[in-house]
Write a structure and sequence with these properties.
It is found in: Cytoplasm. The chain is an alpha/beta fold. About 40% of the residues lie in helices and about 15% in strands. Helix 6 links the parallel strand 3 and strand 4. Helix 3 packs across helix 5 and helix 5 packs parallel to helix 6.
């Protein structure tokens, strides 16, 4: 019997056991109650309230503008809709990088005010003090290496990271540092598949990939991308399971026609 089928509430320990048992971990984003309820009912192991909410919910070009207050709001909505999945919330740009004490305060606010089960932060050795402060306070931390969208202006591109040997070596080193500090899992974003495989095999904590090949311990996608709500966004790593953009715009168009030609509401839809 799989870990997935026997567990009622997914915890950080569940994910570790799944890696040990070689059972793949599934993760999707959600930013609101209704979506979270559907994603949880679909059986995912973990739900990420990503700072990608800045893009798909608010229309920003990058993840940088979203605030801690806004992330807490989204996390509150998601937590209310979840019965089973582990809920992880991003700490947004500027809330943890420069000051471990600020990181702690941000993490405490997220956990206390939203009810999320863990936080995710981007970076390796350079944020070690912040990671330590959070974990020492009892806050579970998921790491994030590779393409780290909060550093997009430093990178200058969303292209694949760690193709060069020096960056790949640093990524492996950072993964081991995050493991030693006590992170319970690690997102690997947009790195070569062979490097992701090497990292996954060299650390004992689960790796969750996005654009990092099939050998990570799990996979994560942005919900809006996976169900095809984002027209025109087609990175190589994305598999669309629905085309909701077409479905929804078609339904709206039909509604507009029905109202205009007075076929909605009909007698059966009137009191």
């Amino acid at each position: 019997m799989s870990v997935h089928s026997e567990i009622k509430k997914v915890t950080t320990e569940t994910l570790r056991k799944m890696k040990f048992d070689k059972e793949k971990i599934t993760m999707l984003t959600a930013y609101d109650y209704t979506t979270a309820k559907m994603v949880d009912a679909g059986g995912v192991d973990a739900i990420l309230i990503g700072d990608s909410a800045a893009n798909v919910m608010a229309g920003h070009e990058t993840t940088l503008p979203i605030t801690l207050d806004q992330m807490i709001y989204h996390a509150q909505c998601v937590v209310r809709g979840v019965d089973r999945a582990l809920v992880v919330a991003d700490l947004p740009f500027g809330t943890y990088q420069s000051d471990p004490q600020k990181a702690l305060e941000s993490g405490v606010r997220m956990m206390k005010e939203s009810g999320a089960h863990a936080v995710k932060i981007e970076g390796g050795e350079e944020i070690a003090d912040s990671v330590s402060r959070l974990i020492n306070a009892g806050i579970p931390v998921m790491g994030h290496l590779g393409l780290t969208p909060q550093s997009i202006y430093q990178f200058g591109t969303y292209k694949v990271r760690a193709k060069e040997d020096s960056e790949a070596e640093k990524l492996i080193k950072d993964a081991k540092i995050l493991e030693e500090l006590g992170c319970f899992a690690l997102v690997l974003e947009k790195i070569p598949a062979d490097l992701a495989k090497k990292v996954s095999e060299s650390i004992s904590i689960p790796t969750i990939g996005i654009g990092a090949g099939p050998d990570c311990d799990g996979q994560v996608l942005v919900y809006h991308d996976m169900v095809g709500m984002n027209k025109g966004f087609s990175p190589k790593f994305l598999r669309r399971y629905l085309d909701l953009y077409t479905e929804i715009t078609g339904a709206v168009s039909q509604y507009v026609k029905d109202v205009k030609n007075v076929s909605f509401p009909n007698k059966n839809e009137s009191y």
